[in-house]
Amino acid sequence: MKQNKLINAVLLAAVLLFLSAPAFSQEKMGLALWKIIKPKSKIPLPLWIEEGVDWLAINFSSFFDSITYLINSINNFFFSFFSFFPVLTPNLFGVPLYIPILAFVLALIAYFVSNWKVSIFTFFSLVLIFILGLWKETIQTFSLTLTAAFIALVLAIPLGILAGKSDSVEAGLRPILDFMQTMPVFVYLIPAVMFFGIGVAPGVIATIIFALPPAVRLTALGLRELPVEIVEAGKSFGCNPFELLWKVELPMARPSIMAGVNQSIMMCLSMVVIAALIGAGGLGGEVVRGIQRMMVGRGIVAGIAVVIVAVILDRMTRYVGQVKRAS
Amino acid sequence: MIKVEHIYKIFGEKPQEAIRLVKEGKSKKEIHTETGKVVAVDNVSFEVKEGELFVVMGLSGSGKSTLLRCINRLIEPTSGKVYLKMDNKQLEITSLKKRELREVRKKMVSMVFQSFALFPHKTVLSNVTFGMEVQKKEKRYQREKAGQILNMVGLEEWANSYPSHLSGGMQQRVGLSRALATEAKVLLMDEPFSALDPLIRVRMQDEFLKLQDKLQRTIIFVTHDLDEALKLGNRIAIMENGQIVQMGTPEQIILNPKTEYVAKFVENADPSGVITAETMVRTIPECSLPLRKVCKIEGEERPFYLIDKERQIYLSADGDEEIKLKKAQIMGKDLPIRVIGEGDKIAQEGGKYLPAVKSKVVLRDIIRIMMRANLPLVLVLSNKGRLKGVITEKPLFQTILKEHPKGSEE
Predict the structure, then answer these.
(1) What 8-state DSSP symbol labels residue A275?
(2) Which CATH number applies to B277-400: 3.90.1150, 3.10.580, 3.80.10, 2.30.30?
(3) pTM
């Protein structure tokens, strides 16, 4: 066995040396292989990609349109949910009554999923955002983030479960996830615009690509790191694979999965701001306008609002995984 | 109830080659260096009767936990067969399909784990109902049954707590309750008390024995602690390097360790709770009372036994078929004979009676009885009440020092 490994290593080294030698000394060595390939100055990869993207954009336009439609409807759902209140409530002393009510409701939710500190922070920071006049933008960003996070998680958690269960799925997913995570985010924006046009949808798509990996990884990790005996306990009582997953593994992996959800939402938020470059709007739009017109104040204020939204979302989702057990 | 035949477990891919090597008689080490595979269980066979508490004892790495998991196939044995006999039906567990195997796990075999393996996100109650939930039993039945069992282990007040709020001993009681709740006749226990403090462990062992007396499950119990094995086991199998090196009752193992490995364990074991009167009893001519010339004891036809003239111990007996000992005369004093069985309370007053014990009373209790009675001897009776002989100090000391002149009588 050890001998086999040694032989393999020697063979591999020989092949690599043979292939890479020309790179070090092109003409001098004059190796046959290199002459056969005869590389030109550059491989026209950018050209190929452009052609490929064009081809996809043209031939699959209806497919992309339907996705755009889906994303827009989800986003509209969230947006109209948050802007539903103004219709119902009257103004009170010049302040629309729905602002304190909504802030209070969110603060209440924050209280139940985490603690009273977060709750108080939520209430006052939301009021602050209204006073700053960024309410509408904040709601837009909020719904964009939720839309992207929702779709990302719907995709990521099942993927993560598969990756947690099967070694081959994980091995296959890992390079793809690495690619998605390390590719500079701006790069996604260009093909996204070509496929989905300007607006919310391409922003959401780019955001999903960016925010998907941590949730997949942490879900898979959570399932893989369960104590062996607990899983055995589940099996020893005759659980079928689905029962095992549903009654034992997922609840046990919940802290890890929720950490993934939290990470994913945070990444959505940061990406949603960048997506404003292709017209996703919201607080990101404010930031972009601030940059374009050199208006320092406007940009920074919008940035602060982003931070506030981030803190609220983070604190709300961070504790969800632990609530039940700590009681 | 459970029969295990020629089980092998070899870890690593393509184990067939390793099995061949094992059968050729190569050692675990040789196989590991040659093929890189680990032989965890090596040709193990045994049978466990209904209601028996069978203990598998071995050090870590001896393959005992792997063997246990081969029985309900949490680990697939590489070869060999496991049978489960129930109500005159015989199931071959090793050839069951997945779905049938799940049925067996649901209804017939349950398991208790070393680390308790409770579900931290469920309350004590829903941990206990877990098995029944998988069985799809009625909700009300689940709650009733779980309540009963929690009551039995003394945890009814904790039903709505989470496992993390319980001490180790309590957690393992939940683990045990969860396994009992499915009404499985077979219980597999993987070092259930090893993670507990010594004091709690002993208490749990006692409680567990009481529970087993009541429930009479068939149990395979894995442990690395010989004292625990001796205390709990009806029979013990000692494992080394994946093989069973000796199998027998606790007494047999203490008295006749077959290999050096077993002997080393036994050396440090406490025999006082294991060796019974049966083993130590000497027939009256052989007994070591100081003056032995007078003993006269042929058979039960004669109603009177005269043991020792000098020290003037007389036993008088009535009846023809079954001898009923009535009284003894010791140093001129008439003493009633008091029969003390297993687990009977031992009276305090010394010098007022001559103690007689049944043959299954253990060493520790015999010493205690002698002390209380303030006499250097104890009579031993068979279960039918016949006089088997006496135990004097000498065999007691020999047993404690593990110098067995006669060895086991079985």
Answers:
(1) G
(2) 3.10.580
(3) 0.77
